[in-house]
Amino acid sequence: MQLHNQIHNLKNLKKQRKDLRNNPTPAEAVLWKALQKRQLAGRKFRRQHSVGHYILDFYCPAEKLAVELDGEPHLAPNRREYDEKRTAFLDSLHIKVVRFENKFVFENLQGILDEIRRHFSNELNLDDRTRPPLD
Fold first, then answer.
1. Fewest 10 Å CB contacts: which of 8, 9, 10, 26?
2. 31-87 pLDDT, tens per residue?
3. What is the pLDDT of residues 90-110, one digit of tens each?
4. CA–CA gap between residue 28 and residue 32 (Å, rounded)
């Protein structure tokens, strides 16, 4: 657990994370509305969660799953290299990264949610809040 505290939500990134949460892109705002409050198979997602010196658009701790939305800046050659290094770093921590272009949030939100759900482990697919009580 000590390593977790050393790499997740570093204090020096707190202001930047807060600024990003308070000023989401339109695509981030739409996807967050669908992910917040455990709406997707009961999974908790965090917005603008940092791991090391990287800030993730969305992160599901239970699944060790990062969801990234890519707009125009991500298509630049130097940005692709940065994203590849970031993904390699996250892979080294066993954090799976799934990426979507911003435009698909507006064109096929349900398809994105279905793809995110495909990365969930089977044993957690049923939301605890919807399970019938044990007799």
1. 26
2. 999 999 999 999 999 999 999 999 999 999 999 999 999 987 666 778 888 989 999
3. 999 999 999 999 999 999 999
4. 6
Listing DSSP states for the chain in one string gives -HHHHHHBS-GGGHHHHHHHHHS--HHHHHHHHHHGGGTTTT---EEEEEETTEEEEEEETTTTEEEEEE-GGGGSHHHHHHHHHHHHHHHHTT-EEEEEEHHHHHH-HHHHHHHHHHTS-GGG-S-GGGSPPP-
Candidates 3.40.50.1820, 3.20.20.70, 3.40.50.970, 3.40.960.10; correct CATH number of 2-122? Answer: 3.40.960.10
The pair of structure tokens assigned to 125 is 């697919």
| 85 in Cβ contact with 42 (< 8 Å) | no
